[in-house]
């Protein structure tokens, strides 16, 4: 049956109307979405305290957010709200040196049971060693030297006469007062660690290189000096090692491997002086490593972070440490913990601090390496060997 003309017109009208309606709905929806994009942000509209981040607005190209463009910080009420990552040479983590990778893999596999035992049972001994090493301004990671020397066995004695946790020789026991009234205190953890700290300090003051220091702890000063001469006068351990006895060369690699096992990385005591210098330069150039954050309120106050040291600031700015301590309590502790610190300075010293910032930092780096430690003690004249073979 043919549809009537009225029916066909009605059908066409409804179809056109439907199409127009749908088109209108789409256009309106698009307009609404485009308007919403100017006011919608990911996350909260305003950042919560301590979580200031650059919020990206959705919308047409070229739209500029007016919200603060600051880096995230973590609030800490004990330090006026800010605690950055710690930047400290003694705590720095570095990759395992590629020159030791194969040796470390083999050594750790072979000694895994013994190393694991000490890792779980030696916490008390390590705490004592850490305390004493810190008193002598030495990296606490040097305690791993005792691990490879004696496996932390107090009464381990070698045919050479070395005894105790640190395998100190008899003449060293006499030199550091460990033989008294017929008693040998090389088996005493605290006393032997103090003696080892003095010995390590004197060796490091001689070579200014931790790897050469550890080599000399094993082979003696004479052995290391002979190797340096054979290497054409180079004091780069990675060149000198080829002229050292195999036992000494492996002794240093054992220390690096043990450091990696306990720490999960290398550190300042597993690097040569050349590598350490490069690290210092990188830290000095780092935007976040050592920085004056801002001058606040009182123009005699500067907020700082990084590895600034009281002694270095006082030396460069000619400030008495006693006066410094009165207006800056717990200064070194706060910065070593990675905290920001509002540094108070005497009148006229703020401008000097800003102008001499780089000089102060260089002094700080030098102090960190402890090249002029008050605990240093020169080896006796004529001493050529600390033979522990």
From TrEMBL:
<keyword id="KW-0472">Membrane</keyword>
<feature type="transmembrane region" description="Helical">
    <location>
        <begin position="21"/>
        <end position="41"/>
    </location>
</feature>
<keyword id="KW-0812">Transmembrane</keyword>
<protein>
    <submittedName>
        <fullName>Lytic transglycosylase domain-containing protein</fullName>
    </submittedName>
</protein>
<feature type="domain" description="Transglycosylase SLT">
    <location>
        <begin position="136"/>
        <end position="235"/>
    </location>
</feature>
<dbReference type="InterPro" id="IPR008258">
    <property type="entry name" value="Transglycosylase_SLT_dom_1"/>
</dbReference>
<dbReference type="Pfam" id="PF01464">
    <property type="entry name" value="SLT"/>
</dbReference>
<dbReference type="InterPro" id="IPR023346">
    <property type="entry name" value="Lysozyme-like_dom_sf"/>
</dbReference>
<keyword id="KW-1133">Transmembrane helix</keyword>
<comment type="similarity">
    <text>Belongs to the transglycosylase Slt family.</text>
</comment>
